């Protein structure tokens, strides 16, 4: 028999055999997959209908194809539940407190997306009236504090709740270029590519943009120094800076955290006289196994080995020479570039030097690529000179979840970022009252900012809360939010990924 006549034969394997094509062919939805069964086995029950997106309208779904979901466990998101697979939930590392708390820790990372879920509808967050929207903007600008009851009986009819919701969505941005997405900036080249950037080839226009940016940056710092602004972010195409007012994160002085950094940036900061620390930096060890400080003189080296001479083992220990120590340290520093361990912390008056350094730093702005000539993005919770009022995008979605043989309503509220720490806390306060003390949330973090939850070195653990309230009464934050953000950071290099409120008590995973 000729080769071409052999069933399934494909010369040179240029084309898949017919038998393989049949196996790969997806079965029709009306037919169960043709899985082989053992001889004598009982007939297999047809599998459940194919899953649909839980957030698509059920009214348009054909009969018999409603989404079928597994119920949520009480302890949080399941590891492999179909419902959560559709949400593209990132891997979670359990870090749950031993017992529920009435408050969750401050999270200084910027969130790109929040997804709240509840058994109670979010209809109160839909279709705000023009008057409610205007009132929410006015409340934000006047820093009005809304205190809702523990449980709002009729959320959809509560004008106070709806106005406060609008108020919690407001943030301030500079520069404002409506056709460009200005956050996040790290890794944003693909999203900005192809957009109109008339300044990229116009030096005069670039200088005008940077001049306005410098005025806005200085305005924010002055507000921060006067404790009229609690914090703000500077988002460049390579790194992000978080400036915090004195009294926040357990510090009694202004602080600035920069992440990620490079050896070149750190050297440039040192050359400008900016004193900073590397809270996550571990000193390298020499071949002899001794930890070495970054800069020591020969006299210090001799003195540090004097105790070995007294023990009579001085000659048996090889003293590392200065060059090898320097090379080893430089290698170690380069290895941590662009990593969370490269976090730099600037405190006190050095933050003003950092301000001038960033304004005059040529590498702050890209000289090539889609972001060439575009000033860094300034994000703030309050108004500042040159800032533009923006609002987070919010939408509520309804779906059905199968629990045993019945269907239950599943309600969700999606918030699209940049969601700053104060907004996250404000939203949870509103949802606590509107959703009867029970909801869960998936939080999507802008990863380069997760390290901002690192605890400050030499932070004042005895910082008086009354002093914080006295010094920051007009910073624009709710008093409860201010109290949360004044606490010492506890999340380390991680951030909150999942948050659950049950019976008015929080648990979380990071």
From TrEMBL:
Cellular localization per UniProt: Nucleus
Region (Disordered): 1-84
GO cellular component: nucleus; replisome
Residue stretches in coiled coil: none
UniProt cross-references to InterPro entries, sorted A to Z: Donson
Bias (Low complexity) ranges: 41-54
Top-level taxon: Eukaryota
Single biological process term from Gene Ontology: nuclear DNA replication
Keywords attached to this entry: Developmental protein, Nucleus
Keyword ATP-binding: no
Entry keyword annotation includes Nucleus: yes
Similarity remark: Belongs to the DONSON family.
Protein name: DNA replication fork stabilization factor DONSON
Lineage: Eukaryota, Metazoa, Chordata, Craniata, Vertebrata
Gene: DONSON
């Amino acid at each position: 028999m000729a080769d071409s006549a052999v069933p399934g034969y494909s010369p040179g394997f240029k084309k898949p055999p017919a038998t393989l094509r049949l196996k790969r062919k997806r079965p029709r939805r009306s037919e169960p997959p043709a899985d082989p069964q053992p001889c004598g086995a009982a007939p297999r029950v047809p599998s459940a209908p194919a899953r649909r997106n839980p957030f698509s309208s059920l009214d348009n779904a054909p009969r018999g194809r409603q989404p079928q979901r597994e119920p949520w466990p009480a302890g949080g998101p399941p590891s492999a539940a179909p419902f959560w697979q559709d949400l593209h939930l990132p891997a979670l590392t359990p870090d749950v407190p031993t017992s529920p708390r009435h408050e969750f820790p401050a999270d200084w990372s910027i969130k790109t997306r929040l997804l709240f879920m509840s058994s109670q509808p979010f209809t109160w967050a839909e279709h705000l009236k023009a008057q409610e929207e205007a009132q929410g903007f006015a409340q934000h600008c006047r820093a009005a504090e809304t205190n809702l009851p523990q449980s709002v009986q009729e959320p959809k009819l509560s004008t106070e709740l709806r106005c406060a919701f609008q108020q919690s969505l407001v943030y301030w941005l500079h520069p404002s270029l409506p056709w460009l997405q200005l956050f996040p900036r790290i890794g944003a080249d693909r999203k900005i590519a192809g957009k109109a950037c008339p300044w990229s080839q116009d030096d005069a226009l670039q200088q005008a943009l940077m001049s306005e940016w410098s005025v806005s940056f200085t305005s924010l710092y002055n507000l921060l120094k006067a404790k009229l602004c609690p914090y703000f972010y500077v988002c460049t195409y390579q790194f992000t800076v978080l400036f915090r007012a004195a009294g926040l994160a357990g510090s009694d002085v202004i602080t600035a955290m920069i992440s990620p950094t490079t050896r070149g940036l750190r050297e440039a900061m040192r050359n400008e006289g900016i004193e900073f620390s590397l809270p996550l930096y571990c000193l390298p060890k020499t071949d002899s196994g001794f930890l070495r400080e970054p800069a020591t003189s020969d006299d210090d080296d001799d003195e540090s080995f004097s105790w070995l001479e007294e023990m009579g083992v001085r000659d048996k220990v090889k003293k590392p020479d200065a060059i090898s120590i320097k090379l080893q340290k430089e290698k170690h520093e380069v290895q941590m570039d662009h990593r969370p361990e490269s976090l730099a912390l600037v405190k006190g008056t050095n933050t003003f030097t950092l301000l001038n350094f960033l304004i005059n730093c040529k590498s702050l702005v890209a000289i090539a690529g889609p972001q060439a000539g575009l000033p860094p993005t300034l994000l703030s919770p309050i108004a500042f000179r040159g800032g533009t009022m923006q609002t987070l995008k919010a939408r509520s979605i309804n779906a059905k979840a199968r629990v045993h043989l019945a269907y239950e309503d599943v309600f969700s509220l999606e918030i699209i970022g940049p969601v700053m720490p104060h907004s996250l806390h404000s939203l949870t306060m509103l949802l606590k009252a509107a959703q009867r003390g029970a909801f869960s949330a998936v939080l999507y973090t802008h990863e380069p900012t997760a390290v901002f939850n690192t605890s400050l070195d030499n932070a004042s653990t005895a910082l008086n809360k009354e002093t914080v309230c006295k010094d920051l009464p007009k910073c624009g934050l709710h008093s409860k939010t201010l109290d949360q953000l004044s606490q010492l950071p506890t999340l380390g290099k991680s951030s909150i990924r999942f948050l659950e409120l049950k019976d008015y008590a929080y648990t979380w995973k990071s």
